Amino acid sequence: MMKPELKGKKKPNEPVGLRGLLSWFTSEGFLNDVLKKRLGISDNLINKFKNNLQPKKKIHLGAYISWILTFLFIIECLTGMFLMMYYHPTIAEAFEDVRYITNIVPYGWLIRGIHFWGSHLMILFVFFHLLQTYLKGAYKPPREITWISGMVLLLLSLGFGLTGYLLPWNQISFWASTVVTEVPMAFPYIGHYLKLIARGGENVSQVTLTRFFSMHVMALPALTTFFIVLHLIPIRKYLIPRDLITHFIAILLCFALLISLATLSPAPIHEKADPYHTPNKVKAEWYFLAAQEVLELAQHLDFLGGWAPKLMGVLIQIFVILILFLIPFLDKNPARNIKKRPFAVTFISIGYCAFIILTLVAKFK
Ligand code: HEM
Question: Which residues form the domain of 266?
């Protein structure tokens, strides 16, 4: 008669003690002993993982962009964690801390450079990803939740850029944040209260820095993680990419690009913020230039009188964002092929061209 197998106990021929530990480093031991027995991961998930290791014949550039985006978010969290070890969010220390990280802390310049360039690449890739999924018609049913959570992720990514910009407490970051937190003033009656909420007072000050810092390191990472999971649940049962090896290579290439950028074009330090000295021209980061230009163009509507021009400048932008949020419900054409969606393709082409032209106009004027 066969002896019943004792749960949790090793079979007589299985290695025990240190030999048991060493067996975890063999593929068989890792699979059966670590993954299945100890971590309780199902055969189904393990098979899925194994299948995903096989390179697929067709390469979808779009899928690479989306997983690189996820990787960039993880890199931003990790490098941000290291930066926080030396950074204090006070107006007396912030600027000096950034200088210390860049010039004194071993490899501090590299970590800061990767964080700096990672944020730019993340926003650039979000724009690519939005365009690619839009052109693919991937927002159509049943992908509405993925699209809407994607739009939230776009705003959260911009939020990272906005709040992170102030943290080095330099002249450019201080005055750009002053201009941005002035934008809510476009709203009649409530504008002043919105500005007070954003700044924590009449002016950009220590309170603003504390607010932006806590948003940047607590609220935004938590919300982004939540929305990435929500984004992927409808499309990925196991939250891992198909074709792991080629994705791993793509991610390594992206990492190499980040290191090259951080080395060849280090993150700038600028001068310490001086609230009493306004620079001649205050320009936002490239991803906010189009928005800044729309606000400036709206000033030409002064014939409308009063607060109308400023309000129009803000409302136009809110309207565009709202349309993008509602695209899955507004576009009732069931076709996904771009040749059969001339209106949708024209709409996004005009949108992206306008964004690029406005950005260039704001950059070079
Ligand atoms: C931090 C920002 C974002 C991250 C990390 C992210 C990540 C991802 C990932 C990993 C996928 C799965 C790709 C695959 O395996 O096929 C995906 C798909 C998708 N994403 Fe995003 N995404 C972000 C922002 C956005 C934005 C801004 C939009 C558009 C508004 C968007 C819309 C979509 C859509 C519609 C799909 C489904 C694609 C398909 O079914 O082929 N995402 N995203």
Answer: 59-364
Instruction: Tell me 137's DSSP state.
Output: T
190-228 pLDDT, tens digit per residue, is: 999 999 999 999 999 999 999 999 999 999 999 999 999
What's the CA gap between 276 and 266, in Å, rounded? 28
Instruction: Tell the residue nearest (CA) to atom 16 of ligand 1.
Output: 63
What secondary structure letter does DSSP report for 271?
A: -
Contact (CB, 8 A) for 93 and 206: no
Count CB atoms within 10 A of the CB of residue 93: 14
User: In angstroms, rounded to a whole number, what is the distance separating the alpha carbons of residues 256 and 277?
Assistant: 39
Residue 259, pLDDT score? 98
Residue 232 lies in a domain: yes
- The CATH number covering residue 202 comes to 1.20.810.10
C-alpha 72: how far from chain center: 7
**Torsions phi, psi for 272 (to 5 deg):** -65, 145
Is the CB of 147 within 6 Å of ligand 1?
A: yes
Residue 50 maps to a domain: no
* Index of the ligand 1 atom closest to the CA of residue 136: 41
Rounded to an integer, what distance in angstroms lies between the CA atom of residue 181 and that of residue 165?
13
